[in-house]
UniProtKB/TrEMBL annotation:
Matching InterPro entries: HTH_MarR-typ, MarR/SlyA-like, WH-like_DNA-bd_sf, WH_DNA-bd_sf
Organism: Pararhizobium antarcticum
Protein name: MarR family transcriptional regulator
Coiled coil: none
GO function terms (MF aspect): DNA-binding transcription factor activity
Domain HTH marR-type as annotated: residue spans: 8-136
Gene3D superfamilies tied to this protein: Winged helix-like DNA-binding domain superfamily/Winged helix DNA-binding domain (1.10.10.10)
GO BP term, pick one: response to stress
PANTHER family (UniProt xref): MARR FAMILY REGULATORY PROTEIN (PTHR33164:SF99), TRANSCRIPTIONAL REGULATOR, MARR FAMILY (PTHR33164)
């Protein structure tokens, strides 16, 4: 019988291997996995402020600014003045960014399909259910930790 630590280590090993393979295949098409997250976000939700991106992706504002600088330099996104706040900029994906994102998505999907072809449909359903239960449990633990960090006055609100 495998211990929870054995299973956890194997899940982390899988995650890192898949992450590395996906990143390599996407980078060959012109955009890394990290950069594609920004492009995907902008393609789905449309133009927004960098602070919105940082909040949605749970990145530090400085990290987002640096990433946007690089994406803009490569003509994958553009910044325009925010009509509601002259201090802020609105970031949007360019046509070039859409083409690059689409080109990188194909090998990512192909690679994921190939990896998961090791499982039959029943195993895939079981894995989905198991991972979903673990996600729910992790969310419960995160919420419990966040609630414990609140001051009594904050908790009362």
């Amino acid at each position: 019988m495998k211990s929870t630590f054995d299973v956890s280590d194997k899940l982390f090993e899988l995650y890192h291997r898949v992450h590395r393979l996906v990143n390599e295949s996407m980078t060959e098409e012109g955009v890394s996995l990290a950069r594609s997250k920004f492009l995907f976000f902008l393609s789905k939700l449309g133009p927004c402020r960098s602070t919105d991106i940082a909040c949605a992706l749970n990145f530090a504002p400085r990290t987002v600014t640096e990433a946007i600088d690089g994406l803009e330099r490569d003509k994958l996104v553009e910044r325009k003045p925010d009509p509601e706040d002259r201090r802020a900029k609105i970031v949007s994906i360019t046509d070039v960014g859409r083409v690059v994102l689409e080109a990188a998505e194909h090998p990512r999907k192909q690679l994921i399909e190939e990896i998961f072809s090791a499982l039959d449909d029943e195993q895939l359903d079981q894995m989905y259910d198991i991972v979903s239960r673990l996600v729910v449990k992790a969310d419960e633990i995160r919420k419990r930790k966040e609630d414990a960090e609140l001051t009594p006055a904050e908790a009362a609100q």
